[in-house]
Amino acid sequence: MTPFLQLVFVLAVILFTAKLGGYLTTLIGQPSVLGELIVGLILGPSLLDITHLPFLADTHLSEVITEIGELGVLLLMFIAGLELHLSEMARSARVSALAGTLGVVVPVGLGVLIGRMFGVSMDNAIFLGLTMGATSVSISAQTLMEMRVLRSRVGLGLLGAAVFDDVLVILMLSGFLALQSGGSGAEILLVLVRMLAFFAFSVAFGLFVLPALSRRVRKLPISQGLLAFSLVILLVYGLLAEVVGGMAAITGTFVAGLMFSRTPEKAQIQEGMNALAYGLLVPIFFVNIGLTVNLRTLESSAFVLMVLVIIGAILGKILGCGLGAKVSGFSYLESLQLGIGMVSRGEVGLIVGSAGLASGLLSANAFSAVISMVLVTTLVTPPLLRWSFQLQARTAAGVQPANPAPGIDED
User: Domains plus CATH for the chain?
Assistant: First the structure.
């Protein structure tokens, strides 16, 4: 087969099995995203290794699937922003700041402590902590959207905390690497200035220019012109977040979604984006998380370190983010929900861990522990989130419902 036909074959398998896996997990009361993640593990190098079957000779196939999947997470976070309002995010600023900050500080501290317990150098222990401080809320955002609670207090606080988490982790990582290379505090200040410049430009453009442009594009006699325009804007925002702000592209696309949510064209954009994202790109992203993990390469000699890193990663986010939420006036159950929502590391943890391995700041055993942490936190987040909202429904009703209650949604 030609490289293109090989890609067509793999995409067909991924889409079919992703939707099948998602459907099967909904039958047992779990979010469909959990099924898609499990399908990725089955298709990945841990078991079937679909991209390296004997008749698939294209060496770039895995890279192409990964890049298509990355488009999926950009659209997913754009849709999450599109469902919210800027005023709602502003009202949750306090809980976002506290939960996001403590949700980084606590797991980073635990990571440093665990590293030192195993006799690694302070530099390596700090980098291990940074991998535990990162968060990827794309999986939590999808789960909350499925349960129709994205606009609840917990959902708003979670997405805002993720932005603060991203900013703080990047600042800490940039500062640490700058000190490693003999840099000065001016480099850290430059990173902060770049972040502020990105947010200032993106919000100003979104408030004062984007609405008028959207109205004009909507009137043009172009097939799906508004959808194409919104795709261009979200991609540019993602690009600017990386190039100018030094942050993850998903932060930029989330901000782009927030800006479009203020426009009268929101419903039309949302319809097109949902079809494109959930029909093609988002399932590929979730399956690809499993495709990038190879359980066969995990070092059994690092088993105790793996267990401690996983426990520290889960408890660090729940305790840190939960404490920030509680101080901000959330109930104990809401604080638990927000903490659980921040547990997943996803692709962000893989990126930070890979950078540490390449730079020599993570040993092979530590990297195996990080891979295990990413995998476990990614898999446990959807069912734990579902359970926590079921618990809220039971508490509110005083009885145990037969099915998860969708009525928690605060739309």
Answer: 3-403 (1.20.1530.20)
Exposure pattern of 271-307 as b/e (b: 16+ CB <10 Å)? Answer: eebeebbbeebbbbbbbbbbbbbeeeebbeebeebbe
Q: What is the DSSP string of 112-143?
A: HHHHHHTT--HHHHHHHHHHHH----HHHHHH
DSSP string, 303-347: HHHHHHHHHHHHHHHHHHHHHHHHHTT--HHHHHHHHHHT---HH
pLDDT in tens, 150-190: 989 999 999 999 989 988 888 888 778 777 766 666 777 88
Please give the Cα distance from 67 to 63 (Å, whole number): 6
Instruction: Name the one residue in this structure whose structure tokens are 């992203």.
Output: 285
Residue pLDDT, tens place only, 239-290: 999 999 888 898 899 999 999 999 999 999 999 999 999 999 999 999 998 8
Query: SS3 of 171, please?
Result: helix
Query: Whole-angstrom Cα distance, residue 349 to residue 355?
Result: 10
Closest CA to 374 of 313, 302, 305: 313
